[in-house]
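General statements about sequence and structure are easier to judge against a single worked case. For one protein, we set the task of working out the structure tokens from the amino acid sequence alone. The sequence in question and its structure tokens are set out directly beneath this paragraph.
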Amino acid sequence: MNKYLLSIKLILILCLSLQAQTSDIQIKVLTEAENEPLLGATVYFEALEKGAVTDFDGIATFTEIPDGQHQIIISFLGFETFETTIQIPSNTALIFKLKEGGNQLDAVVLQSSRSTRTVRKIPTRIEFIGAEELGEKAIMNPTNISMVLRESTGIQMQQTSLSSGSTNIRIQGLDGRYTQLLRDGFPLYGGFSSGLSILQIPPLDLQQFEIIKGSSSTLYGGGAIAGLINMVSKTPDFEPALDIMLTQTQALGSTANVFYSKRNEKFGFSLYGSGHYQKAYDPEDDGFSNLPKTTSISFNPKLFYYPSENTTVWFGLNGTYDDRIGGDINKIENGEDGIHQYTEENNSKRLSSQLVYQTQLDSTSSLEFKNSVSFFDRNLTVPDFNFDGKQTNTFTEISYNTASENTDWIVGANLYTSNFDENDNAPLQRDQKDVTFGAFANNIYDISDNWILETGLRADYNTDFGFFPLPRISLLYKNNSGFSSRIGGGLGYKIPDIFTEEAEYINFENVLGINKSTVDAERSYGVNFDLNYQTRLSDEIGFSINQLFYVTAINDGLLLNSTDNGLFQFENAPDEIFSKGAETNIKFTYKDFRWFLNYALIDTKLNYLPGNPQKPLTAKHNAGSVLMYESEKWRIGYETFYTGKQFLSNGTETTDFVTMGLLVMRNFKLGSVFVNFENFTDRRQSRFSPLVLPPHDNPVFPEIYAPTDGFIFSVGLIIKPFGNEDHD
């Protein structure tokens, strides 16, 4: 009898063991027409109530799926929903294709366009950087987003200070103040933070970048003359996510990033923390730092509430403490001594809040309310001068979206305030307050299956500078053979303030405040035209090409001119800043290989100067090549970038140069290890011309036109305890 009981127990244990077997799987989703990976598609196990969203490669990853048959639903906005049954484990790859034609209106695909449409059906040209590419750039530079932006076609990262490393972004040859930086649709950066903003945005908690080049003021107001960059944060899922990244460079820079998120039916949260320490680094051994001594800490918690399936409320905080000191190495390490006197110290604190309420009113319309308050405190100290102040910005907006079979509408209104308060002890009081009210409407209309028209109008009123009407129009043609073309244009404007690249270069010393009675707002007009084609050259080889042409002109450009008493004052330029050019992007794919080629022609003329010279520190010719190999176990990338000759402000022509980089990463079940060789040919400006000119106790810093830090070697570890497959 005992033998029978023992046999029954063993059989039950075996059955339970078999029943408990689970698998980790990947499901890949492609478009049926182009056979391209579909980013953002939802794959849902109905019985298990488990879902995931596909990544940049069209892959949705699941862990602990019970073996057996499962019903799955695959859906994506603008595509027909697909239902099927799969067997787990499977002897074949789980690859499915979606057909265009669905008209579901339950999710916003791209925040920068505020549309429920896919990229392919939006007339406005939007460049997209997904999670995979963001992950690669985060490995190359885990401290900030400069690497992500620098390697995008037509975007230049212009360093304005050797001592602090301050860096501004330039799109299509135009100064950084003409580009609007957004985070989840909020204008949190710019103004007083100026060149420090890029250095204070770590990339690990971001899931995608959306870039619009050319005037984008209709939906986002003034400041988006050259374009806008919207950084979209990661959001919590039912599956917990934990990412830990630790990086060390040979230049004595140490960085730690931690991101964790989780949600249930009603609540979700995400926590992000980042810490970075950099010792002052002097690769030339000339006694002055090329990388400042830096201590930076960031913290970003978010709380999500889901009162119903149709409503989401979330609240987030962004906090950053950043202290950087550069200049004379001896003074940094040992204190002031004789001729060792020059340092530049930037101490800054940032705190911002974001509140969002989103609700789906019915199957075709939604309502959104958002508010942010941003506080930035900065103290800049150089010998015999201190610039100290605080800036508080607020942004409030309400918008309504509705869509039908052939048309989408968004209408809304917003209020933007900016208040800069300089320390009361400053000899030049440059306080400035601005209040801007805005209302906007945007429409996307399907003229036919091949033609789509987008029109928009914004009306802004600034209490000091008056009324700004901002129309915009874009037209898209697409067909089923992989060809599409867009043409669009619009107007823009920029409220003047003292935070320009020219003023930052001289540390705002002796710079007079904006005289609102004599200085006008800057105004712009621009047109973009692009051609796009993608196809399969064979079953294994994919090819795509995008060709862009653009023109942007700025009237009443803000200039910083000297006065007779040794001060500097802002005036409007008597003629245009005129930028025109072209961008070419080519992509090849073959099995696990991807090859990207790009070229940018940037011809920015200062028509207000005799001879209409090229804008200083703007290379007319730029090119790049990125070759990537990606498998389950390995990720290897080799990059080459060419920067053409530039002109300095005094008319001197610089040399051109080439930089190269190599990334090697090995994936394991619980994460990855990587090594990165950035600029391994050690191209830096000091090899072409001096970075520092005498006297030592009061040095002169020439303009920066090439990398200053040279070769950087880094090693790192990424720990991902959840949702990974064994790659051993």
Notes: The chain has six helices and 37 strands.
